């Protein structure tokens, strides 16, 4: 008489899943994985401030640049961190397993870059008119928009690559991408965005 082991196998699988979910959602797991990157995010904010403090010449020569700079940082954080979260969810669901011509991967990255371009255009124009409305002198809508687009799209491209590599890499090493990618992208995003703003301002001044 054959012994049916299907029930035992099913019970074992349920126990494994429950154990994984319990560890996945534990305070210890969340703190252990996220804390180092949260500390890095804080340090990254300080580094971004140092870069901004070294842009005194550009801020003086391009009126209105100081108005759009925080918005560029915020835009990058919103778009790139959202990309990281979506990638983490897609990886958990098994929709993305590696870097290839995966429609899910391509659509997420393409959507992020397209949003970066659109919001950079809006930001440059809005920054000009808000600067004027506040009674301050502006370098002009074209100048501010050009800086916003150059900085926004270039930093968006860099951070998209970083988000993909980081999400897949962390998952393969046994980390939860949702705990790691967002604070890491926030840190790298602030630094990269400030560098791109600085370089974009240099380019505009040379034109």
TrEMBL record:
Transmembrane segments: 34-52, 113-134, 146-171, 183-205
Topology within the bilayer: Multi-pass membrane protein
Gene Ontology, cellular component aspect: membrane
Pfam families: MgtE
Span of domain SLC41A/MgtE integral membrane: 69-199
Sorted UniProt keywords: Ion transport, Magnesium, Membrane, Transmembrane, Transmembrane helix, Transport
Highest taxon of source: Archaea
Location(s), subcellular: Membrane
InterPro entries for the chain: SLC41_membr_dom (IPR006667), SLC41_membr_dom_sf (IPR036739), SLC41A1-3 (IPR045349)
GO molecular function: monoatomic cation transmembrane transporter activity
Entry similarity comment: Belongs to the SLC41A transporter family.
UniProt cross-references to PANTHER family, sorted A to Z: DIVALENT CATION TRANSPORTER SOLUTE CARRIER FAMILY 41, SLC41A_MGTE INTEGRAL MEMBRANE DOMAIN-CONTAINING PROTEIN
The name this protein goes by in its record: Divalent cation transporter
């Amino acid at each position: 008489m054959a012994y049916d082991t299907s029930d035992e196998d099913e019970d074992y699988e349920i126990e494994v899943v429950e154990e994984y979910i319990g560890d996945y959602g534990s305070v210890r797991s969340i703190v252990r994985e996220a804390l180092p990157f949260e500390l890095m995010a804080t340090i990254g904010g300080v580094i971004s401030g140092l870069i901004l403090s070294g842009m005194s010449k550009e801020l003086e020569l391009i009126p209105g640049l100081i108005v759009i700079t925080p918005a560029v940082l915020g835009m990058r954080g919103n778009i790139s961190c959202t990309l990281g979260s979506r990638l983490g969810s897609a990886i958990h669901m098994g929709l993305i397993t590696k870097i290839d011509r995966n429609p899910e991967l391509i659509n997420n990255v393409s959507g992020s870059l397209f949003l970066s371009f659109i919001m950079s255009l809006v930001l440059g124009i809005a920054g000009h008119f808000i600067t004027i409305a506040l009674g301050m002198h502006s370098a002009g809508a074209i100048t501010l928009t050009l800086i916003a687009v150059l900085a926004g799209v270039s930093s968006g491209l860099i951070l998209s690559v970083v988000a993909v590599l980081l999400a897949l890499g962390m998952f393969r090493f046994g980390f939860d991408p949702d705990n790691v990618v967002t604070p890491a992208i926030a840190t790298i995003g602030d630094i990269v965005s400030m560098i791109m703003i600085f370089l974009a301002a240099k380019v505009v001044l040379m034109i």
